[in-house]
C-alpha cells in the first residue's frame, strides 16, 4: 500500500470584503464538504482532504472570516496556529490591492510571517476591461513580499467564477508550507 506524507494545515483566507474569499473556498471545496460556522469568533471553518503530486496527503483546515466581521479583537483567535495564508485582493478594485499591506502587518504583528500566496481574484473580468491592477503589479508586490519574509511568495491570478487556477493556489500554498517543514 502506498504511503503518503500526511499533513494537517490550518490556512487562513485574508483580504478585504467581497474580494472573493468565500467563493474561492467554495470552489476549492466543491461538493460534499463539511462546513462549521464558529459563531463565537465569527469565522467559518471547513475541511478538505487533497492529494498533491500523488505524494502529499493534505488535510486543509480552511478558515474564512464570516460575513463582514472585521473586528480586530477576533483576529488573534482567527490566526492562531495558522500554517499559511492566501492573501486575496480583487483585480477590479485597486483599493483591495492597496490594502494588502494592512492585512499583512496585522497578521505579522500576531503570528509573524507565514508562508503565503498572493492572489489576484476575479481574473475573468480582465477580458471585459474591468481590471485596475495589472499582472505585473501583482508580481512586483509578491516579489517585494518574498524579500521581506525571506521565502518565495508566488502571485497567482484566479477566478472563483470559472475555477481558473483555484486548485493551483491551494496546492502551491500547501507545497510552500511542506517545504518549510522539510
Ligand atoms: P468575500 O468572502 O471575500 O467577502 P465573496 O467575497 O466570496 O462573498 O464574493 C463577493 C462577490 O464577488 C460575490 O458577488 C461573488 O460572486 C463575486 N466573485 C467572487 N469571486 C469572483 C470571481 O472570480 N469572478 C467574478 N466575476 N466574481 C466573483 P455577489 O454579487 O454575490 O456579491
Ligand atoms: Mg465571505
Q: Give the distance, in angstroms, between the N- and C-terminal Cα atoms.
A: 23 Å
Class derived from helix and strand content:
alpha/beta
Instruction: Report the total helices.
Output: 6
Kindly state the percentage of residues in helix.
25-40%
Series of H and E elements: EHEEEHEHHEHEH
> What is the CATH top level name?
Alpha Beta
As for the CATH topology, it is Rossmann fold
Rg over CA atoms: 16 Å
What would you call the shape?
A: globular
Bound molecules: guanosine-3'-monophosphate-5'-diphosphate, magnesium ion
Q: Order of strands across the biggest sheet?
A: 2-3-4-1-5-6-7
Second-tier CATH architecture: 3-Layer(aba) Sandwich
Description of the molecule:
The chain contains six helices and seven strands. The protein has helices at residues 21-29, 75-79, 94-98, 100-111, 135-149, 166-181; strands at 5-14, 34-38, 43-52, 56-65, 84-90, 116-121, 155-157. A hairpin with a 3-residue loop joins strand 3 (43-52) and strand 4 (56-65). The longest helix is centred in the C-terminal third of the chain and has 16 residues, at 166-181. The model has no long low-confidence stretch (mean pLDDT 90). Bound molecules: guanosine-3'-monophosphate-5'-diphosphate and magnesium ion. Magnesium ion (MG) binds at residues 21-22, 64.
Amino acid at each position: 500500500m502506498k504511503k503518503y506524507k500526511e499533513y494537517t494545515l490550518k490556512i487562513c483566507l485574508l483580504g478585504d470584503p467581497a474580494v472573493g474569499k468565500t467563493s474561492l473556498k467554495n470552489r476549492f471545496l466543491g461538493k460534499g464538504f463539511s462546513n462549521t460556522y464558529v459563531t463565537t469568533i465569527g469565522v467559518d471553518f471547513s475541511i478538505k482532504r487533497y492529494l498533491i503530486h500523488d505524494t502529499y496527503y493534505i488535510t486543509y483546515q480552511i478558515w474564512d472570516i464570516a460575513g463582514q466581521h472585521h473586528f480586530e479583537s477576533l483576529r488573534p483567535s482567527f490566526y492562531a496556529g495558522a500554517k499559511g495564508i492566501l492573501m486575496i485582493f480583487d483585480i477590479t478594485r485597486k483599493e483591495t490591492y492597496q490594502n494588502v499591506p494592512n492585512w499583512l502587518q496585522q497578521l505579522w504583528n500576531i503570528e509573524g510571517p507565514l508562508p503565503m500566496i498572493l492572489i489576484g481574484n476575479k481574473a475573468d473580468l480582465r477580458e471585459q476591461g474591468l481590471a485596475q491592477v495589472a499582472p505585473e503589479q501583482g508580481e512586483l508586490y509578491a516579489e517585494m513580499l518574498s524579500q521581506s519574509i525571506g521565502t518565495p511568495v508566488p502571485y497567482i491570478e484566479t477566478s472563483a467564477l470559472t475555477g481558473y487556477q483555484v486548485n493551483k493556489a491551494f496546492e502551491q500554498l500547501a507545497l510552500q508550507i511542506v517545504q518549510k517543514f522539510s
